[in-house]
Amino acid sequence: xxxxxxxxxxxxxxxxxxxxxxDRDGWGAGPTRALQLALAEGRLLARRPADVDxxxxxxxxxxxxxxxxxxxRGRPLVFNPLVSLxxxxxxxxxxxxxxxxxxxxxxxxxxxxFRAADVVVADTEADAQFxxxxxxxxxxxxxxxxxxxxxxxxxWSPPDRFVALFIGSPPTALASQVIVQVIPLGYGSSNLSDVxxxxxxxxxxxxxxxxxx
Length: 213
Known about the structure:
Elements: H1 2-7, H2 31-46, E1 55-57, H3 65-72, E2 77-79, H4 85-92, H5 101-116, E3 119-120, H6 125-135, E4 161-167, H7 173-187, E5 192-198, E6 203-209
Parallel strand pairs: 1-2, 2-3
Antiparallel strand pairs: 4-6, 5-6
Helix pairs in contact: 2-3, 4-5
């Protein structure tokens, strides 16, 4: 969204306090991380941002909405969450059981964050419907998540043997199935020659095409 705004000639000023940047453990949780997050939120609350027309809170900003609302001082507040915390940690990753206290707390956090914003932006129509249903919102606009223009350019064509490499958190069984089903659609072939998940490096390797090449 930021790159699109800048490409359209909008001046974007970023306010950021690092918590997870450069951490190999990514979204590690615990008392120390909770303290770091609380200190970061305090620093954001203490800042007095420049005079702007609107405030945009991005992913993962559910806990940033109070600081953003105070900083906005009545100006429009846009929230682009990318995901629901409850949907991600309960339905997708299975970190918490559906209906548990933790799941209900996450739903409450999502709901309050979505309702605190003047506009909630989703990255897909499915997420837009989910966010609206969860928080009782009206129409939720959609802004598709794009690739980095500086890295991905048109003109590429797949070779005879196509290998896709997934790098990220350990994919769940559902995520792996989706990846395996979607990649052949984009490639135009249903011939999957190899599918390998390496639990040590958390990488999923998918080869498509003639395995003899």
